[in-house]
Design goal:
The chain has helices spanning about 20-35, 50-65, 80-90, 105-115, 130-140, 190-200, 215-225, 245-250, 255-260, 265-275, 290-295, 320-335, 335-350, 360-375, 385-390, 400-405, 410-425, 430-445, 450-460, 470-475, 475-500, and strands spanning about 5-10, 35-40, 70-75, 95-100, 145-150, 155-160, 165-170, 180, 205, 230-235, 235-240, 305. It is mainly α and about 525 residues long. The structure holds glutamic acid.
């Protein structure tokens, strides 16, 4: 294969949405697979929307995903003069003409077509104007647009699309489209292909929403005598109602930043994105960076649009269950040392970071993260569900209070007695804590489960989590004893109030109603 040169040319709209992220990823994978060049180009000709912040947002998103570019970012706005020159050149070679039809005239013709129920297409009034007359009118200052002169003989534009195969569009179905507006500015169809030519792009990999523009761009390539790149129009990502994903309709949940802020790991995000519109041809779902580059091919892009499920109202499982599960997979299995910086970031944000975690308590910190991660789905879980492990201020889930701690009135006494027993325990390890709890249950003639669930609720405020004895050892004797005593006092107060007919004390707060599993894919 010739040298591969691909590009990602986003319009800076203030955010990078997942459709754009996927386009960038596919181009990048293709470039990396073939030892090619990935060009980043910003289509910033909409001056009102294209701020430096909007551009930065794209760069940040790509950097976070680990997508590095080899050239650019180039700015489309720096090439407007060149785009105009190309339009002029097409005019000189007769491939384009000046059109002086006014807005009103065109509107009237459009209305007429509508009345007669035929599709409207520019009728070519100015196409027939002698060039001298057109030049004369331009000199006089009459406003005009430049239109491309689509061949009017029988025939069609033909080009190759990797996804759709041989594409063909009859000339008669293409109107003489505008390439330069009356304000002198080039249109997207022209600028985009002129830039692609200058950047020597070999493969145009982009969304299917640009498929309809392609025959026009191919006509431009042919008229200019430029080589036509190979196109690959990828499927789109739709919401469950089959609408195109957009920030306007769907909100932040479709932006890359949202995933980042919700505790996604960058590569897990890329791995999921890769599967939205491409498949490896087998049932693999987890790919390392190298494996994905190796497996990726344009031939396996799907034609059918993919559906992206999301639930912004669910704080924990806000996005596609498959995405959540892939993220959980990486979180739970990646080398611990690689995960630590993400956890540190979350703990810092939550005010839970202790500098000792990077120093004398490093060993403890690694063990705690390793213990917790097997049940977590995003790095944010360390700051919410992980709170009891990193702070003494943690919420008591309502369920933990009601179901586990109020289950038996005796728990107030039992927890306090257990605190006494555990306090004397030396060593305080998995075996000794388990023995103590089980012996106590036997001594009091109750099921060990009642004590186990009660202790877990007391020391973590939660009903689920790692195995109880792992929890106890990680928290350490001192914290366990203190928490058992404190909850025991609260329980005693609760029952005392209850007996005197007062209002019962309730749990301190809820961590959210999300179940422990994301909804099924
Ligand atoms: N700026 C266009 C977009 O964001 C680029 C289209 C293309 O890849 O040619 O949709």
């Amino acid at each position: 294969m010739e040298e591969v040169r691909v590009r990602f040319p986003p319009s800076p709209t203030g955010y990078l949405h997942i459709g754009g992220a996927r386009t960038a990823l596919y181009n990048w994978l293709f470039a990396r697979k073939h030892g090619g060049t990935f060009v980043l180009r910003i289509e910033d000709t909409d001056v009102e929307r294209s701020t430096q912040d909007a551009i930065q947002e794209i760069l940040d998103g790509l950097q976070w995903m680990g997508i590095d570019w080899d050239e650019g970012p180039y700015l489309q706005s720096e090439h407007v003069e060149e785009h105009k020159r190309v339009a002029r050149c097409l005019l000189e070679t007769g491939h384009a003409y000046r059109c002086f039809c006014t807005k009103e005239e065109l509107e009237a013709k459009r209305e007429e077509a509508k009345r007669e129920r035929r599709p409207y297409r520019y009728d070519g009034t100015c196409r027939r104007m002698p060039p001298e007359e057109a030049e004369e009118r331009e000199k006089r200052g009459d406003p005009f647009v430049i239109r491309f002169r689509v061949p009017r003989q029988e025939g069609s534009v033909v080009y190759q699309d990797v996804v759709f195969g041989r594409e063909e569009r009859a000339y008669r179905d293409i109107e003489d489209f505008i390439i330069l507006r009356s304000n002198g500015l080039p249109v997207y169809i022209l600028s985009n292909m002129v830039d692609d030519h200058r950047d020597r792009i070999t493969h145009v990999i982009r969304g299917q929403d640009h498929r309809a523009n392609t025959p026009k761009q191919v006509l431009l390539y042919q008229a200019l005598g430029w080589p036509v790149p190979l196109f690959a129009h990828m499927s789109l990502t739709l919401d469950p109602k089959r609408r195109k994903i957009s920030k306007r309709v769907h909100g932040d949940v479709v932006t890359v930043r949202y995933y980042r802020e919700k505790g996604f790991l960058p590569w897990a995000f890329c791995n999921f994105m890769a599967l939205l519109g491409w498949s490896p041809g087998d049932d693999r779902e987890i790919f390392s960076r190298e494996e994905l580059i190796e497996a990726f091919s344009l031939e396996r892009l799907s034609r059918a649009n993919s559906v992206f499920n999301y639930d912004p109202d669910n704080p924990r499982f806000f996005t596609d269950p498959k995405a959540i599960n892939i993220n959980a997979h990486y979180l739970r299995t990646m080398p611990l040392e690689e995960l630590i910086p993400y956890v540190e970031e979350v703990l810092r944000e939550e005010g839970l970071w202790d500098p000792a975690y990077a120093g004398e308590r490093r060993g403890w910190f690694l063990a705690a993260v390793d213990l917790l991660r097997v049940r977590y789905f995003t790095t944010k879980d360390f700051g919410t569900l992980g709170r009891p492990y990193f702070s003494d201020e943690y919420p008591m889930e309502e369920k933990a209070w009601k179901k586990n701690l109020l289950k038996d009135k005796q728990l107030a006494r039992w927890l306090s007695l257990l605190a006494d027993k555990l306090e004397c325990l030396e060593p305080f390890d998995l075996g000794s804590t388990e023995e103590t709890v089980r012996e106590a249950a036997q001594e009091w003639g109750i099921k060990a489960g009642i004590l186990i669930n009660g202790i877990r609720a007391a020391v973590t405020g939660q009903t689920v989590g790692p195995g109880l004895f792992d929890i106890l050892v990680i928290l350490g004797k001192e914290r366990v004893v203190r928490r058992l005593r404190s909850v025991s006092r609260r329980l005693a107060a609760h029952w005392a109030k209850e007996e005197s007919g007062g209002e019962g004390e309730e749990g301190a707060g809820d961590l959210g109603k999300a179940s422990e599993r994301p909804p099924k894919t």
